[in-house]
Write a structure and sequence with these properties.
Distance between the termini: 51 Å
Radius of gyration: 27 Å
Strand content: 5-15%
Largest sheet: 15 strands, parallel
Helix content: 25-40%
Structural class: alpha/beta
Oligomer: single chain
Number of strands: 15
Number of helices: 16
Shape: flat
């Protein structure tokens, strides 16, 4: 028979396997033509890759993508053993073309994906196929189940999951799966979620962010006995208030992270009187939609009363709440707050934030996009200098002047990072000259991209300042509004290390 053409081979590799077909992982075989061939011993004085140690070859292999690494296993017996040994130790695979441990420079066919799982699946704990070119089908689902028995985290963000595929997943999900990310899945509906959650008895983390067709109703049936620690409902427009009430009422001993960002205000219209205290909740993200249906200060306070151990609170876009009163109450109810985001909350005067000094454990503060009438100098001199534990402050796109920045730098001895990106006039860089005689033990990291401050204007920059100049990195920006930098590249975002946080379009991982 003639050899198959590339197109035929590509088509055949994408065909779905029947339920009776066993998965076959191809491995290199010895060809009989080489039985009688002997290789002469190479002159040791001649350069050869065979003189390299295994560790050196490993370092070379690190520059190859997945498919190239798999092909290397067919070169010779030594390389086969090196590749197998190397890949068998892998516990995490990311096929996301943007954020990848293995560099993936081309499309990954179904057969290559299955072969990859065959080489790495035994010890694989985390699998990320988000935004990849992989076409999920019955065979892929079965491969994940059979070849990855220890898999605990699965990221299917932005994959096309319809009702049929969801039914398939419900049959083949790994038994020990603890984290499931379904962020921004196309065609994903409530019925799909019900199928997938049916057999996830060990699940503790669920991400449904940007799934606009999901109401969450099946969660009350399928996850009733689970010990959930993380829920992410970011921008779930159809999320029902009853689901939020169920989450707060049933996971008081386990829940650690709850994200209701960009959800409609109606999800907060629940009675909190009968709800238990959430003993372990540390992260509460309630970034608001800019509309007329934001929860009031009283409603937010009722939620906060349930969270005495809260450490991270995101209140971005809450422009209608009384900040001074709310922050004072927050300091009493949640004394462990270390991260607070008040971006776009529109404080009218510095006195509106005078209660910040009551948050003794606060180390990270966001005041991005503060208005022109806001007196930063007064805020810094009267309040922020009393927040002795502050290490990171973000003033992106705010109207701050050089004198205020200098007061901030000189007054807060523990400050490590100051974010001034996208700040416009009156900030022009004079604070650099004011800091000439400033004595700091460690250099202060200042982010000054996308401002009029340019490095070539200064012949001398104090050693106490580590300033990043230049144009912004477009990946870090919301392209619809170039004056704002959004979450992903936040240098001191608490989600970054623990949970991984999102891009502005919903891509990427979460925890």
């Amino acid at each position: 028979m003639g050899e198959m053409s590339d197109s035929e081979s590509s088509d055949s590799s994408n065909e779905e396997l029947s339920p009776e077909t066993d998965l076959i992982i191809e491995q290199p075989t010895h060809h009989p033509l080489f039985d009688n061939i002997t290789l002469e011993r190479q002159d040791s004085s001649q350069p050869s890759i065979h003189i390299l140690t295994d560790d050196s070859i490993y370092l070379i292999f690190e520059y190859l993508d997945i498919i190239e690494t798999m092909r290397l296993a067919t070169v010779c017996k030594r390389w086969y053993n090196l590749c197998i040994n190397k890949m068998s130790l892998v516990s995490k695979i990311e096929l996301n073309p943007t954020f990848s441990i293995f560099r993936l420079n081309r499309s990954l066919s179904q057969s290559n994906f299955i072969s990859l799982l065959g080489l790495t699946g035994e010890n694989l704990l985390q699998l990320d196929v988000s935004s990849s070119s992989l076409r999920l089908d019955w065979a892929s689902c079965k491969a994940i189940s059979q070849l990855c028995p220890k898999l605990e985290e699965l990221n299917l963000s932005k994959m096309k999951i319809n009702n049929k595929l969801a039914t398939c997943f419900s049959q083949f999900l790994p038994p020990n799966l603890k984290s499931l990310i379904l962020n921004g899945c196309v065609h994903f509906k409530e019925k799909c979620l019900e199928h997938i959650l049916r057999n996830t008895k060990e699940l503790t983390k669920l991400d449904l962010s940007y799934d606009h067709k999901v109401t969450g109703s099946c969660i009350t049936k399928q996850l009733e006995r689970n010990k959930m620690t993380h829920f992410n409902f970011t921008e779930c427009y159809r999320l029902k208030p009853s689901v939020v009430q169920f989450v707060l009422a049933n996971f008081e001993d386990t829940l650690e992270h709850l994200d209701l960002s960009l959800c409609p205000g109606k999800v907060f219209n629940i009675s909190t009187n009968q709800l238990p205290i959430l003993k372990r909740l540390k992260v509460f993200n309630v970034k608001s939609l800019v509309d007329d249906h934001q929860p009031t200060s009283e409603i937010l306070t009722n939620f906060i009363r349930l969270m005495p151990n809260l450490e991270v609170l995101d209140l971005e876009n809450y422009y209608n709440i009384d900040l001074d009163k709310f922050i004072g109450t927050l300091a009493q109810l949640c004394p462990n707050i270390r991260y607070l985001n008040l971006s776009c909350c529109m404080p009218k005067t510095a006195h509106s934030l005078s209660s910040l000094s009551l948050l003794q454990n606060l180390d990270t503060l966001h005041l991005n996009k503060s208005p022109k009438m806001f007196d930063f100098k007064e805020l810094i001199d009267s309040t922020l200098v009393n927040c002795t534990n502050l290490k990171n402050i973000s003033l992106q796109s705010s109207c701050v002047d050089d004198e205020s920045v200098f007061s901030l730098i000189s007054g807060l001895k523990n400050l490590q990072t100051l974010d001034l990106r996208s700040c416009r006039l009156p900030l022009d860089g004079k604070f650099i000259l004011l800091c000439q005689d400033l004595d700091r033990q460690d250099p202060l990291k200042i982010l000054a991209q996308n401002t009029i401050i340019q490095k070539d204007e200064y012949s001398f920059i104090p050693v106490s300042l580590d300033i990043k100049f230049g144009l912004p990195n477009l990946i870090d920006y919301d392209l619809g509004n170039m004056s704002v930098i959004v979450g992903t590249d936040d240098e001191f975002d608490p989600y970054k290390d623990e949970f991984g946080y999102y891009d502005s379009d919903g891509s990427g991982g979460w925890w």
